[in-house]
Amino acid sequence: MVTGDKTLLRLVGRSFVGFEQALAEQAAAFEQAHPGVKVELTFRDPQALYESTIARAELASGAIDVTLTLTDWLPEAMQRDLLVALDPLLAQDPPEGWPDGWSPSLRGLQRDAGGQTYALPYHDGPMMFIYRRDLFEDPREQADFQARYGQDLRPPETWSDYLKIAQFFTRPEQDLYGAVAAGLNDAHNNVYDFMIHTWSRGGRLLDDQGLPIFHEPIAIEALQFHVDLFNRYKVVPPEAKELDSVASGAYYASGRAAMMVNWCGFATMAEVPGQSSVVGKNGLGLIPRGDSAQGVHTSINVYWVLAVAAGSAQKELAYEFLRSTASPALDKITALNGCIATRYSTWRDPDILRQFPVYATIEAVHKSVDSPPPIPQWPAITEILNVGIDDALHQRKSVEEALTWASTQARQLMEAR
């Protein structure tokens, strides 16, 4: 698209201050290298982004050239031919270091069943255990914990340890809670937390026939624990039921929570001067496991990618923006703006490691990750889970009733398609 004397390259992505700041810098670098190009950036919240670009197929309309999109949505987008297969462009002019400059776990979810690649990684998860190291290492806190529980205060190995520590640090009169979580019904962290709790107890989402089994005992136990953190034990702030992932990350960075399980990008946000009250006070570790012999340390592997819209009239220029943004220098810009960069070169950069300790842990976490089922129906199933989990969290239904309903609805959806 040409506007005035410049070619307009239109990018649509998720609203988040880290994305907006990083992409603004990366767009400016691209414009400097391409004087005849203007990059237009538009940002929407996750649900609106999915509804407009994929559900309503705006990616095929010609109104978008580049999209910042989520790997959860890619099976549907690829099935509906909403994105451009990048293989010929990657073969002709790949980003520096492609593909070995990225973890294999960041290259698989954007490939279809035939092995074609439809996107480049931009912002990584995974979820991690993040905690106030200054509180955990405080001699007075350690002595009080030892006196109360007869054990050392240390990062939790299991979910029962997590609950005990959360109860210890919950002090509303001091404006401090033991943990913070994102309970908002936005089909994002509320669903991902349920998945993490289920996997970490040895559970699964689909049976051997690929049908949902959210109503199995392990999944019920998992969601009950999560719901109890809010309602029974009250170790998270009351307003957490209305917080999304970004707001819960900001709550932690304000110094009002001792722990959280959240995207590791919020660990970097907690280390940005001016945006955080706990700079230099944070620790990171593996997500707690279930208490039974089936329990495992795990994390969720979903990430944000840049892709070329199928309807773009300037696909080669759009790909050039992807390639530019994936360069070592511009990937580092992603990290410096509080997002999680995706290249090994950035993860191992001494300056980045000094400022953002999360990068010292990220490679280890990526060795034990799981992902949502790579099926086109998953976004619609996520919306069903969103409703069921929110009903349980707000105690409109019991956990068992909510998950039985979600399983039934999800199975009906899969059978109808």
Automatic annotation (TrEMBL):
InterPro entries associated with the record: Bact_solute-bd_prot1, SBP
SUPFAM superfamilies for the chain: Periplasmic binding protein-like II (SSF53850)
Pfam short name (any one): SBP_bac_1
Superkingdom of origin: Bacteria
PANTHER family registered for this protein in UniProt: ARABINOSE-BINDING PROTEIN-RELATED, DIACETYLCHITOBIOSE BINDING PROTEIN DASA
UniProt protein name: ABC transporter substrate-binding protein
Organism: Dictyobacter halimunensis
